[in-house]
Amino acid sequence: MHYGVAFAGKLREACGVCGGFADDQPMAFLTCFALYALQHRGQESAGITAGPGEGRKLWIKRGLGLVSDVFPDSADLKGIVCKLAVGHVRYPYGLEGRDPENTQPLKLRYRHGELAVAHNGKLLNALELREELECQGAIFQTDTDSELLAHMVARQGSESLEEALVEVMPRLKGAFAFVVTDGRKVIGLRDGFGFRPLSLAALEGGGYFLASETCAFDTIGATFIRDLEPGEMVVLDEEGLHSRQIIDNPSTNLCVFEYIYFARPDSNLQGRNVHLVRRELGRRLAREHPVEADIVSGVPDSSIAAASGFAEEAELPYEMALVKNRYIGRTFIKPTQKMREEGVDIKLNAVRKIVEGKRVVLVDDSIVRGTTSLKLIRIMKRAGATKVHLRISSPPVIGSCYYGIDTPDKHDLIAYKRNAEEIAAMTGADSIGFLSMAEVVASLELPKDVFCDACFSCNYPVEP
To answer: Please, are residues 86 and 236 in contact by the beta-carbon 8 Å criterion?
Structure first.
């Protein structure tokens, strides 16, 4: 992940990672299809590293763009003879993050062979570690904190990648899910707080696979086994599967926004289906912030489930009041705030025949700067809506994330030191209602201490 920070119109996850090992499987081909399933986690670049095993060089292909851009004919990957593969899709921070050398997996050579690294997350002590390594003579090829892992492994005395990682991993502070390979085995690592998700599955016909989300397993016909534990290292090799707990006193602090926005609706996290959680968030939102209205609509695409739950609970018709143009570039990569604002008009449009003369409840999953909400409400009223009541299926975002999620400085957050009435006035909404943290917890049916809610509470599990 890149050091630079440039705010997105929506909160953005950093990356998606995957990889596996099997004797008789087209691993590069399967990894490509897993990346298609993880595409929502990063659309800036994609890459795959594959290897046949002992004593052979790793094959790599990566580039800027979507998975389909980098691998236009995925069938060609069937011809790559390999036992293992590692894949990555990436969302960068800032325009400088689009440099080709920062695409992953990173592939580096060191005294014990080759090493490929795919990373999701952010290391809080990256600058400190980088300075230390540079003083020891390290020459960095990228701007990513992901490269730090490779340099630290290379400085360990053991020829065993597994043993080197046991020494290195406790020195990494922050959020990470790594999938790495040396051409002989694939290893998955999860930080001691479990900020970023990583799950394990069994491949049909033998072998194992790791991925950021379970939807990738469905795509390749793999069977989910379990989520990796915080601080756990899972090794996939010729002997099968083995695991080691290598961080003492771990705790679970999965990012709560995985449920609210980041993860695909067909994924499961900590045993909970994302779509069902979002629908329950909507139901509870309707009970907590009822309003007299004619129709309910959601902001495509992540808010559809919450909006349908709101409509069911409120006994109001759900309508597709907003239509998304899926062939327009993402608004958040536009370089100026004015261009980002104008981009919303191009990307989303109201259906006049549905909203004209109606009191509309518009459900969204979150509100960050408020720019998008302001434009959406203007679009709805321009199309003839008499009232637009904004309902948010999460609490107000009042703090920046330091664990791999792209957020602005807290002073640029619309909810920072503002109440609901002030936010409604700034966005043009006739009213606004945020789901309380207590209702989010109730929707998840999980203890409050098993996920990170620092963006809502400013209570950070690890000091930034």
So the answer is: no
3-state helix, strand, coil in the chain (%, to 5): 35, 25, 40
Q: Which phi and psi (to 5°) does residue 44 adopt?
A: -85, -35
Q: Find, among 53, 179, 181, the residue nearest to 115 by Cα.
A: 181
* Model confidence, pTM: 0.91
Q: Which amino acid is at 373?
A: S
Please give the order of strands across the beta sheet that includes 84-90.
59-64, 45-51, 84-90, 15-21, 208-211, 199-202, 223-227
Question: If you search the block for the tokens 């915080």, which residue do you land on?
Answer: 230
Sign of the CA dihedral 246, 220, 121, 127?
A: positive
What pLDDT does residue 332 have? 43
DSSP code string of 98-110: G-GGG-SSEEEEE
On the question of a cis peptide bond just before residue 250, with omega within 30 degrees of 0, the verdict is no
The Cα–Cα gap between 198 and 192 comes to: 12
Regions of the chain with pLDDT less than 50: 1-8, 94-96, 330-335
CA distance 177 to 179: 7
The residues with which 144 forms a beta bridge, in sequence order, are: 2
66 contacts 193 by C-beta, under 8 angstroms? no
Q: From the candidates 15, 215, 401, 455, which is the catalytic residue?
A: 15
**Number of Cβ within a 10 Å radius of residue 411:** 8
Looking at the chain, how many residues does it have? 464
Domain ranges for the chain, please list them: 15-252, 278-445
What CATH number matches the domain at 278-445, 3.40.640.10, 3.40.50.150, 3.40.50.2020, 3.90.850.10?
3.40.50.2020
β-pairing, 387-392 vs 359-364, is parallel
Place of tokens 């620092």: 454
Cα–Cα distance measured from residue 429 to residue 370, given in angstroms and rounded to the nearest whole number: 11
| Closest listed residue to residue 461, CA positions, set 178, 199, 228, 249 | 249
Asked if residue 19 lies in contact with residue 212, where contact means CB atoms within 8 angstroms, the answer is no
How many Å apart are CA 170 and CA 177, to the nearest integer? 13
Residue 15 annotated among the catalytic residues of the structure: yes
CATH number of 15-252: 3.60.20.10
Given this model, what pLDDT does residue 335 score? 45
